[in-house]
Every structure is written in C-alpha cells, then in structure tokens.
What does this fold into?
Amino acid sequence: MVTKRVKAETGVKFLIVISLVTLLLLYINPSKAISQEKEISITFSGDILPHTSLYEKNKSNNGYDFSETFKGISPLLDADINLCHLETVLSKNKPSSYPIFSSPIELADAIKLHWEGCSGASNHTLDKGIKGVISTKKIFQKLNLPLAGTKISPQDDPISYYNLPDGHTLAYLAYTYGTNGIKVPKENPEIVNIISYGKIKKAILEAGTKADLVILYLHWGNEYQENPSSQQRVLANKLLALPELNAIVGSHVHVLQPAEIINSKPVAYGLGNLWSGQGPWSGQPKGQIGAILKLHFTYNQEKKRYEYIKGEVSPTLTLSSNWRVFPALNLLKTNQHTSACLALSSTKRLYERVFSTPKTC
It folds into this structure.
C-alpha cells in the first residue's frame, strides 16, 4: 500500500511540474503557445439574375416586394459576413430582362435583409450605361451596403472592406471578364473592374496592406459549361500564388462548376444561379440550381494573416411556382423531389473532394 501511495504522490508532483513549465512557456512567449484566434466564416451565393417572371410575380400596387424571396435560405446565411452577387443594375425606371437587364430598386431592400454586401461586376453591369451603375451604387450606399467591383467617382473605392472580430479586416474584390460588347465609357474607364491579371494583382497587393483577409470574386467562364475553362484555371493558379489572396469565388456560367485547393487556398469556379428565371422550363435543366458556400478562416498571429481551414456547400433551388429560393435539402419530401435530388447529387459530385457537402437522396 505504501508503494502505491508513493507512486501516486510522485505522479501528482510530475503533473504539477509539467503544468508549471507550461505556464512559464506561455508567460515567456504566448505567441508561440497560442498562434491562432477565433474562427470566422463567410458565405457566398450564386448569381442573382432577375428575369421578367421573377419581378412580375412580386409586383404590387406600391411597386415590388421581394421580402419573401430569400427567406427560405436565411438559415444558410448565418456566417460572420454573408456576401451575394448581383448581376444586374437597379433602377427606378421600368425594369427589363434579357438581353438588357435592369431590376427594381426594391430588390436592394431584400438583399439588405440577408446579406452584408455584394459583388457587382458582371457582363450586365453596363446594360444601362453609366446611369445604371450610379443608380445601383447609390441605392446600396443609402442602405449602407458595400458593392464591390464598380467605381462611380474618384473618391469611390471598388474594393469593399468589412470589419472582422478582434480588429481584423476583410477586403472583397470583384471583376468581370467583360460587358457583353458594351464599351467602357472613356469618361469613366474605371466604372467597372475588367479582368486583367496585372490590375487584379495590383489591387490585391493594395488590399493586403489594409486587410488581413482578402477574397476575390470573378465573373468568368463559358456559359452553361460545368468544367472550368483553361483560362479560369490558369488565372486561378497565378492569383492564388499571391500570399495576400486567401480565396477565389466565381460565377456567371449559370451552372455549378467544381472547386479545388491551390496553395492551400480554395477556388470555387462557379456557384450557379441563386435566383433567376432559368431552368428546365427554359431548356436549361440545371439553371435553377445554385449553391451557398461557407468558408472558414482562422487568424495566424505569427503570419499576421488569416488562413483557410474548411468549407461547406449547400445547394439551393429556385421554384418557378412562386419564384422563391430554398435549400435543396428541404425539398426532398415535396413534389420537387427530382430537382432536389439533382441539386444534391451535382453538389456532392463537384465539391465533395474539397468541401463538406450534404447527403444525397
């Protein structure tokens, strides 16, 4: 019995010594012992592209009301910062659809309910000329919503900045491959960001001096093509070689495109359509499928920058019966079972090697 008691006392003393040594190390060099801070998350959504049927469904005697449009996906938009992509401009004038888009200004109120800001650089940014860009930007400014990718005055910054916990900052940049042949006006050549490696690199380096988390949105790729183009892959590899850039998120092609990890950083080539009039009813069987991507980052105190740690993808569906958006998972036990299954299986096939994905049906 004495021997057992001696061994027990020796073990207790050993644990006390180890604890004291650990506390001493923490006191001497806390940055080595605690190198990471609280995890933060950001969500990104597919294209918001309102066709005529979408805004006509939400027309009232007092204008338009989109307050119910995105309510179904609200539980998925639970990150520290939630970002959308608005593909069209907003105007008080009569709305229009393909090929020249202009959406009701009330859409911004619905965006404000669910997102902290958007990217606004797309091939439809100049559909209504300079006036359309100015109108959209001012509507967003009135609601205190940042809109990345456009610039309406010398004082305006096309980079959106967001406050993160513990005094950190997110920089969000947005660029488009072009504007459907509409020339960028000479009087304001910076009104919309056009993809150019040199210009994007310069902007990322600038953003990196002001923010410790930098994310880039790209409106790119070949429409309706699930596989990323060689241009997309080359550009992603070049940009993600920059230490200042943490992730790339893209869309435009109206279908889901896959994701991969480059230099320990994610690129999601395309998140499909979050809300549009495209779908089987218009000859595009996957046009109603989108995705909400949640990326998680943690701050590395030694490097003084955020690092990517994980991501999750949740597929969404736009229903033509009411032109609202829902998580595909929630529709498995409805008459939308087939479409929901297609969304879930497509998401798993394209993303499961990179991100967490929901179960298939």
Notes: Helices lie at 2-28, 30-33, 52-57, 107-114, 129-142, 197-210, 230-239, 337-351. The chain is about 25% helix and 30% strand. Residues 2-28 form the longest helix (27 residues).
